[in-house]
Amino acid sequence: MNVCEIISVGTELLLGEILNTNAPYLCGALAAMGISVQRVLTVGDNPARLQEDFLAALRRSDIVLLTGGLGPTKDDLTKETVCKALGVPLVEDPAQRRAIDAFFRRRGGECGYSNYKQALVPQGGVVLYNANGTAPGCVIRHGEKLVALLPGPPGELRPMFQQALKPLLQPYAGGAIVSHHVKTVGLGESRMAELTAHLQDSENPTVAPYAKEGESYLRVSAYAATAEAAEALCAPVIKNLQSLLGDYVYAIDQSLEETLLARLREQGKTIAFAESCTGGAICAALTALPGASEVFRQGYVTYANQAKQELLGVTPNTLARFGAVSEETAIEMAEGARAGAGADLAVAVTGVAGPGQSEAKPAGLIWLAACNGKRTVTRRLDTGRNDRTYNRTAAAKAALALGIAMAAEDGGLVPA
Amino acid sequence: MNVCEIISVGTELLLGEILNTNAPYLCGALAAMGISVQRVLTVGDNPARLQEDFLAALRRSDIVLLTGGLGPTKDDLTKETVCKALGVPLVEDPAQRRAIDAFFRRRGGECGYSNYKQALVPQGGVVLYNANGTAPGCVIRHGEKLVALLPGPPGELRPMFQQALKPLLQPYAGGAIVSHHVKTVGLGESRMAELTAHLQDSENPTVAPYAKEGESYLRVSAYAATAEAAEALCAPVIKNLQSLLGDYVYAIDQSLEETLLARLREQGKTIAFAESCTGGAICAALTALPGASEVFRQGYVTYANQAKQELLGVTPNTLARFGAVSEETAIEMAEGARAGAGADLAVAVTGVAGPGQSEAKPAGLIWLAACNGKRTVTRRLDTGRNDRTYNRTAAAKAALALGIAMAAEDGGLVPA
Question: Of the candidates A269, A298, A278, A243, which has an alpha carbon nearest to the alpha carbon of residue A350?
Fold first, then answer.
C-alpha cells in the first residue's frame, strides 16, 4: 500500500486558534482509496522547519500533501519553501494570472499586487485551478513520488481535491480500506469494549472502540484489493457485533440525525422539537441534512418559562410545583409541541446545562419527553458534569435517540 | 523560550473520523504560558512509529505532550510505548487502582479486567489523577526534559491539564505570548490584508490575516517577558488596525455571539430569532453562552411556509407573491418574531442553503431582516456557493452581525 504524509502549515494552527479540518477530510478520502496516511504534521509559518519536515516526510512516503500557506499574504510560504527544497523554480502561469484577474472582476473588487504572487507555479508541475478562490494548488512529481500543495480554506481545498487531485492520485491507489461504524447509545465505552473484546484481536478487519458525548461506537475497518472484497471482510463482523450489542445499536455508519431522518421518511411521519437547554441545537442538527423539510416543519426554542407557557401551553402550576427542569414540564412541552406543530411526533428537552446549578437541580440533569399521540415516554439523563457544551451535546443526542426509538415504535419497527 | 511538541495518538484521527480538538486546546494554553509549540503530530496506534516519532520529538524539544491511547482497550498503547522508549518500568499505583474501583462503584457499572491496565503508571513518574474518567495521566522527567501523557477525551484532558499539569509546566514557562484578534465582518480576507499590509511586516507583535465563513480577522501576537509587556506591545497595533478598518471591526477577540450578548446586556435588551434556512443554528450559537437567558427568551424555527404563517404571521399573499426566500418574507418574519416574543429586537433569516436551488433562487441567496420596533432593516447575502454547511454558517454569522449593528444603533452606540 502506498504511504502518505500530510503537512498542514499555519502558525494559527499551532496557536490553537483554528481546528484543522482539512487533515481529517483528506485522511478519510485517502483511506477510501487505499492510500495509508501514517502521519499528519502541523507546523508553523517557518520556512526552515517546514523544509526539514517536508524533506523527512518525502523520504518516508510515496505521497506528501501540504495544506495551507498558498494565499496572497506575506506569511504564505509553503509553495516557495517546497519548491526551494526540491530545486524547482517558480514561473508565472498566464492562465492562472488571467483567472485571478477574472475572479476579482467578477467579485467587483480590486486585485492588489499581492494576489499576483498566486500566479506563480512550480515549473513542470501540474497546476490545480481553484474554482472557489485565487490560490491555485499544484502537483510536483519527484521521481516516483508525488507532492501536492492545496489551499487552506476547506471550501477551496475540498472541491480541488475531488475534482483535480484525486484523479492524479489514482495510480497510487492500492486496493481499498473500507470502514464502518457500529453506533450505539446508552452503553458506556468500556462496557461496549468488554462485550466485544474477543473481536478486537482481529487483524483484518480491525475492530476498535471509540466514544464521544453520550455515544459509543465500534469502527470495523478492512483492507483488501477492492472495495467489494473489503466490504465482504467487514460484513460478518458487523453482523456479529449487532447480535452481541442488540438494541444498543441504533445504526451502522449513520449519525443520530441521519437515522432519525431516514426512519421518519420511511414512514412518512413528521417531528417537532421543543428545546430549552439545547437552545436550538436539535433543530439545527436535523436541518443540517438536505431533505429535512420532508419530516420537519417547525421547532420551538423555549428558553424562558414564559415561552414554555405561551408557545407550548406548559401550565404555570406545573412550572411552579416541579420547576422548568422536571419530568412534568418535559411532558407538557412535548405534548404542546406536537399539538402546536401538527406533527406526528414531538420530542422535548429541558435541563441544567451549567455552569449555574442548584443542589436539587445539578448541572447535567436533563429531562426528555417524546410523544406520538398514543403515549408519552420520558427519559432522565444525569451526566454528572458541569460542562455546558458536553451537557448540551449529550442532551441533543439523547433527544435524537429518543426520537428514533419513538419513530420505530410508532411504525412497528425496532431501531437498526 | 522553551519548545514543546505535541503528539496525538489514534488511528481514528488518521482515518479522518474525529477532529483533533485537544491539540489546538493545548497549543492555546501553552502559548499563553510562553511555551512555543513548534510541531503537532498525529500518528496511529502503531507502537513502532510512535516510538520513532516520540524519540525524535524528545531530541528536538524541552517538553513532549502526548494525548490519547491511555484507555482500557487493546489499542491503547501510548503509555507502554513511551515508557519502553525511555526505559521506565510500569508499576501498579494502589491509589489509582482504588480510584478505578470507586469510579465504577459510583457509576453502578462493573469494573472489567481491562480497566485495571489503567492503574499501571511509570515508576518514579507523577500520576495525574483523572476526576472525569478512569485513565490517569502522568508526567515523566527525562533529564531536563518533561514528558506528559494525557487522556484523549477532551472532557478528561482539559481539567487534568488545568489542574494537574499546568503547575508542573510553570518552571518551563518563559515569558508570555499574548494574542488578540481584530474581528471584522463584511470585508474579504484579501481586501482586509491589503488595507493592513504595511503592518504585516512587524515582527513583534506579528500581524497575520485569516478568514472563515463570512468573517475575516487579523491576529496580533506579541512575545515578551511578562503578559503585561506583551499586551503593551499589542495595544498600539490593535488601535492602528481599528482605525484603518473602521466599522468593519465588530469586536476584539469576542465571537459574534459573545459580542451580541454583551451589547444586549449593556442595554438590558432582549432579542428573538426567526430561523428558516439556519434551522436553529442562530439560537443554538447564542444559547451556547452562559448568561444567554438574560437576553434571549424564545426563538422560532419556522422551516415550512405554514410555520412561518402560523407562528410568525407571515401572510399567504407575501409567500405567494415573493416566495419564502425574499426580502418581504424576511421582514414579516422578523416583525412577527419580535411581536410574538415580546422582545426588543428580532432578527430573521430565510435563504436557500442548498443543495436544492432554482435559477431565480440560487443556493447561497439569503435574506435577513432585523427590527427594533422603530425600523426594520434588511440585508441580502449571496455567497455564490452551493454548500449547505457554508451557507448556513454564513447566514447565521450575518444574522448575528445584523443583531449587533441593530443593538448598537438602538442604544445609540456604534459597534466596537
Answer: A278
| Strand ranges across the sheet with A126-128 | A126-128, A137-142, A145-150, A63-67, A3-9, A36-43, B36-43, B3-9, B63-67, B145-150, B137-142, B126-128
Express the helix, strand and coil content of chain A in percent, nearest 5 each. Answer: 45, 25, 30
Q: What is the pLDDT of residues B307-341, one digit of tens each?
A: 999 999 999 999 999 999 999 999 999 999 999 99
pLDDT band at A108 (very low <50, low <70, confident <90, very high): low
Distance (Å, whole) CA A256 – CA A249: 11
Which three cell numbers, joined as nine digits, stand for B170? 510553570
Type of residue found at B285: A
In A, minimum Cα distance to B342 occurs at: A307
Cα–Cα distance, A379 to A308 (Å, whole number): 19
In this complex, which of B29, B72, B302 lies closest to A193 when CB atoms are compared? B72
Residue A135: all three cell numbers together = 490560490
Find out whether A297 and B303 touch, Cβ atoms under 8 Å: yes
Whole-angstrom distance, CA of residue A22 vs CA of residue A168: 19
Q: Could you report the per-residue pLDDT of A181-209, keeping only the tens digit for each?
A: 999 987 877 788 889 988 988 889 999 88
Alpha-carbon B142 to chain mean position: 34
Would you give the DSSP letter of residue A184? E
What is the phi-psi region of residue B276: left when phi exceeds 0, alpha when psi lies from -120 to 50, beta otherwise? Answer: alpha
In three-state secondary structure terms, A322 is helix
Q: Is B94 on the interface with A (CB under 8 A)?
A: no
Which of B39, B209, B283 shows the shortest C-beta gap to A42? B39
Residue B23: is it exposed, middle or buried by C-beta count within 10 angstroms (0-12/13-18/19+)? buried
Q: What is the mean pLDDT of chain A?
A: 91
* CA atoms within 13 Å, Cβ hemisphere of A15: 20
Helix, strand, or coil (residue B127): strand
- Nearest-neighbour CA in chain B from A123: distance (Å): 26
Show the cell assigned to B409: 444603533
Interface of B with A in 66-85 (CB under 8 A): 71-75
ipTM over 0.95: no
Q: Where are the beta strands (DSSP E) in A108-204?
A: 120-122, 126-128, 137-142, 145-150, 176-185
Cβ–Cβ under 8 Å, residues A391 and A352: yes
C-alpha cell read off for A295: 419530516
**Residue of A316, A280, A318, A315 whose CA lies nearest to A299:** A280
Strand A271-275 relative to strand A296-302, pairing: parallel
Write the pLDDT tens digit of every residue in B36-56. 999 999 999 999 999 999 999
Question: How many Å apart are CA A368 and CA A347, to the nearest integer?
Answer: 7
Domains, chain A, in order of start with CATH, read 3-172 (3.40.980.10), 177-252 (3.30.70.2860), 256-410 (3.90.950.20)
Q: Do B16 and A26 touch (CB under 8 A)?
A: yes
Q: Which of A41, A190, A392 to mutate to test the interface with B (most CBs of B within 10 A)?
A: A190
Amino acid at B334: A
Summarised one tens digit per residue, pLDDT across range B185-195 is 878 777 888 89
